[in-house]
Amino acid sequence: MHPRKSSAPRCRLAACVPSGTVVALILVAGDAGHDARAEQPQRRNQHSLVPLPETAPAPKDNITTPMKVELGKQLFFDRRLSGDNRMSCATCHVPDKALVDGRPRARGASGRELARNTPTVLNVGFFSTLFWDGRAGSLEEQALGPIQSRDEMQQDIDELVTELAAVPGYARQFRDVFGRPLHKQDIASALAAFQRTLRTGNSAFDRYLAGDKDALSPSARAGLESFTGDAGCVRCHKGPLLSDGKYYRIRIGRGDKGRGAVTGEPGDLYKFRTPSLRNVAQTAPYMHGGSMETLDDVVTYYYRGVPTAPRHRMPLDVEPLLGNSFSEIPDVVAFLEALTGNPPKITPPKLP
Q: Is the omega angle on the peptide bond into residue 285 within 30 degrees of 0, that is, cis?
């Protein structure tokens, strides 16, 4: 099958969530007995996978501090952030569920089912754009979106400022942290600061990157070889998040216009951002519409299920891996499972 011309990088396999400048760490998958086989795909595509930085970068006007993080954590768990005082950020981003809700599609105000799957906020501080369609350019911009959305938390932001300012504990904390009476932008800044601390670490893959070649099972090492080689997953899933932060049309969904609804550009219609694969084994179901239940479903789709005819008469950015063996699928899944790192410990705070 001849590749279609596209200005976007070809993404042949994407388990579908821009990484910073990091010294590239070229992977050698497997032990000495597999070196030659592992190095050949590396020479072909020259893509690399790198460790996750220790801390997420913060803008100069919102430096991360312990007091600000604690305030943001309280807000994250506070149901007063919704119009009917029934929903908090943690309602959809559940700490015990890898900060997703486990549903195919999120539930908004009054339990209404929304159009998209809840993305995890694990490691979200390393992304430069937020939401499946990239409509927010920072965590500060993202933070107030669900709060004010008519479909999600339905809270008028000015009313929220008044409500929180009337709580002595919050009034004192906001003044101590920001040096002024409570302001709506300070709500966003505190929530963003807390989310930047939600980093995972010490996955089997991280230990492998650090030099422990036994950290990955033989199956996971074989999956890594496919991931960085013939399957081409690394073309889109690369960098510390295993995401290039770009947008692709893969014919999954219910007519959701995706990135095109944000930019208004016809070429962006039905495109969605490459998700991060870190802790992906804990964030089922998958795809922006939650249409796939397991990682095996996802990988199998890219091996055989991608349609050969474009939808909406628009070209796709992926192709089925028709020349690859089904026997690779369990190994790729084993590698994806090896990306599960220790989640941050989040104890629900005492609210003012």
A: yes
If asked whether residues 163 and 268 sit together in one domain, one would say no
9: in domain: no
pLDDT tens per residue across span 282-315: 999 999 999 999 999 999 998 887 776 555 567 7
Catalytic residue numbers, as ranges: 152
Burial 101-135 (b: 16+ CB within 10 A, else e): beebbbbbbeeeebbbbbbbbbbbbbbebbbbbbe
Residues 190, 209: one domain? no
Q: How far is residue 161's CA from residue 194's CA, in Å, rounded to a whole number?
A: 19
Query: Over the stretch 46-66, which tens digit does the pLDDT of each residue have?
Result: 347 999 999 999 999 999 999
Q: What is the pTM for the complete model shown?
A: 0.86
Mean pLDDT of 21-27: 33
Would you tell me the crossing angle of helices 218-228 and 35-45 to the nearest 10 degrees?
A: 30
Same domain, 210 and 333: yes
- Do 205 and 331 lie in one domain? The reply is yes
Residues 110 and 224 in one domain: no
